[in-house]
Amino acid sequence: MTPLFRYLTPQVLVSRVGHIVRVLPSRTLHCTFKMSCVNPVKRVGILGGTHGNELSGVYLVKKWLKDKSPVTRGTFETTVCISNPKAVEKCVRYIDTDLNRVFTDDNLSPKVENMSGPNLPYEILRGRNLNSVFGPMGSEDCFDVVLDLHNTTSNMGNCLVLERLDDYLMFHFANYVQQFLHCPVFSKPLDGPFYSAQSMSKHGIGIEIGPQAHGTLDADVYQRMEKITHYVLDFLDKFNQGEEFPACSVEAHRITEKIDFPRDESGDLTAMIHPKLQGKDWQPINPGDPIFLTFEGETICYQGNSTIYPAFINEAAYYEKRLAFWAMEKIQVSVPPLKVQK
Q: Measuring CA to CA, which residue among 92, 150, 154, 95 is closest to residue 120?
């Protein structure tokens, strides 16, 4: 899908149909999309175990592999898949490298120099295999929708990961599901980068639910993930059957900055998440609010100039990625009416 807008300056956003989008003092963006019908959804993929120790998706997919009827709908084909079977077997996040970061043109192309041969990281080889089934990524032949199921140790609650702000089919789903339960939207900047498993499809969506310790199951988290998956499938089925969805406005949170832990010259941590921030995902951080506590008991406060909204605070898997939390800005996405292309 071609993006409908581009950055001119850090403060101005313009759509290709000429609508000026202004930044309000609260840094809320009103984004307008060109109205268009969307082709019917024919193939949907559901992935579990992209990270092998995030067990809600693993065991949901294992259940549906035995009996696919709960995720079967009459208007499209559903394919369920354990995406990283070796990592699932060992109950680890990955074997060689993070599978949810390998879906780039360079990694997926065997013709790229230094990216061929049997000694490639397992997850790159596995990514190519998945792309041959659910992709090819970026092509007309790829799956219409890939739904990727994840857990987090952070107190994110229910969360939808929508990578592309111009994917109004998925933003209509976000509006649909939010009628039933609280489910914030986590999104990336307009220019990406995009490298996750859901990127293989025309309309990707990730479900992140927490907190849940890696390598464990929490019944409430499992049931919420199952429920949201059914909401996705029901929405797509209604869409295919011709139900029209009116214009709506969807609140989303978009990444503005990666916040790392304070470190010394050797790279070791010198502080941890402040108790007043721990577990406060989605809650505003204002200038001067405490965010870190040193091992000596000194409070480190947020020094930014505007309010931010943190996500994935203290996620266990992100320590290796040098990420204490994502800083987000809150935006309001105005989405046009939606109907299926006949």
A: 95
